[in-house]
């Protein structure tokens, strides 16, 4: 039996919702599954944490073999401190039945400092709360801390040559904040321990806390009773407004009276559900189509975003493009052709990506993308990195048009879209025959994580399979745009 009840993550969970804490401890298996994307975020945090250790090299790592052995880590930490060791990684402490581990514990000029590493570009409210808890527990367990610092990624760092860790990471003291929060932490620990001592699930109703600061992983349990087409599916509405309606008893969109003053975008979504019909603004669609000129390119990029810049001249979390799919149609109803690019793994893909893209789009014609900010940002970064292509890339940017506009503006809305105008959401409404389900890779995030993971993969078969899956996925995205365009033209 462990001699602690709470950990940093369960404490933060309790601050978000005591029911979530109780369910986590007593009904762990009921949790919603952790997505591939969430797992990738966790892994990234671990990798960045290990890299940051090199700010203080030569330390002793007390990471336990399994999460069930943190008590041993805490014991070992105390032994190492007593032995006079001055750098400890993943040092663990227990106080008031609460366990915390700190990424780096270091003694400088005779004083102890704790450093918590985050792979993010800024310090969030939750990170501050993490830090306040860690500070409280470490101090409470008897170690005098001269400082508590957050270490996070410097968004302004640009890689030149080998990674410069002192430039890549920002160190910022949060000790004052942690000290101020100590009463709150003490109270919250007591509240959480009282909750865990209960023999029943706390009666807490769903609310904004289900989404803040994290999407709760017990939504599958607590939100079971919320019907389809509820007010929670109204795209663009704040959670506050959704709950305001919900607490007035307006749970389904059909419960919302026509007299209720509400924005036109919300009204369209509600009408689509109430009337069970597709809402179409033909004039809006027609005006949009008049802005497009054949020949048309249908273009989609895929990118990955390494937290630590991998390539010369790149910055943290820069979108590194590695793939595009390009359909081309010279006239309305004309022949469709396709070109694509998929980078080799293990090399900097940016230059060859830019060259191939410029070559494949050199003929005149509007370039249709879906949500233009992403493609434009990538082209601008390429123009910055490769001045020799700057003018040509700017010329391509000037030809970009956004196919998302008619859907963002609700010129076409079906309840199937469930309040979203993403490509994946509108496709089942406009071109139901074209499906992502049969693909191994079904979304951009998975494509990104897959390609990033290939950078260190050595198994050739795995690489080949992943590249095939990536190629199949990206092609469907631009084919979807072609089909959507055809539907708009018919309308
Ligand atoms: S889904 Fe909401 S109410 Fe349920 S445990 Fe999570 S935060 Fe609490």
H/I helix tally: 19
CATH class of the largest domain: Alpha Beta
- Poorly predicted runs are none
Report strand %.
15-25%
Main beta-sheet annotation? 7 strands, mixed
Give the integer mean of the pLDDT values.
93
Number of domains: 2
- Write the CATH architecture name of the largest domain: 2-Layer Sandwich
What's this, in brief?
Helix content is 43%, strand content 17%. It is of the alpha/beta class and 491 residues long.
How are the secondary structure elements laid out?
Blueprint: E1 6-7, H1 8-16, H2 18-26, H3 36-52, E2 60-61, H4 70-82, E3 87-95, E4 98-108, E5 111-117, H5 125-140, E6 145-153, H6 165-168, E7 169-173, H7 175-180, H8 182-197, H9 219-222, H10 239-247, H11 264-274, E8 279-280, H12 282-290, E9 296-304, E10 320-329, E11 336-342, H13 350-360, E12 366-369, H14 372-385, H15 390-398, E13 400-402, H16 405-408, E14 412-413, H17 423-430, H18 444-454, H19 460-490
Parallel strand pairs: 1-4, 2-3, 5-6, 9-12, 12-13
Antiparallel strand pairs: 3-4, 4-5, 6-7, 8-14, 9-10, 10-11
The protein binds iron/sulfur cluster.
Iron/sulfur cluster binds at residues 17, 19-20, 23, 204, 206, 209-210, 216, 218-219, 222.
Please, could you describe this protein's structure?
With 491 residues, the chain is of the alpha/beta class. The chain has two domains: 6-197, Lambda Exonuclease, Chain A (Alpha-Beta Complex), CATH 3.90.320; 285-490, Ribonuclease H-like superfamily/Ribonuclease H (Nucleotidyltransferase, domain 5), CATH 3.30.420. Helix content is 43%, strand content 17%. It has 19 helices and 14 strands. The protein has helices at residues 8-16, 18-26, 36-52, 70-82, 125-140, 165-168, 175-180, 182-197, 219-222, 239-247, 264-274, 282-290, 350-360, 372-385, 390-398, 405-408, 423-430, 444-454, 460-490, and strands at residues 6-7, 60-61, 87-95, 98-108, 111-117, 145-153, 169-173, 279-280, 296-304, 320-329, 336-342, 366-369, 400-402, 412-413. The strands form three sheets. Strands 1, 2, 3, 4, 5, 6 and 7 form a seven-stranded mixed β-sheet that branches. Helix 1 (8-16) crosses helix 5 (125-140), helix 2 packs across helix 8 (182-197) and helix 14 packs antiparallel against helix 15 (390-398). The longest helix has 31 residues, at 460-490. It is globular. The termini are far apart. The mean pLDDT is 93. The structure holds iron/sulfur cluster. Iron/sulfur cluster is lined by residues 17, 19-20, 23, 204, 206, 209-210, 216, 218-219, 222.
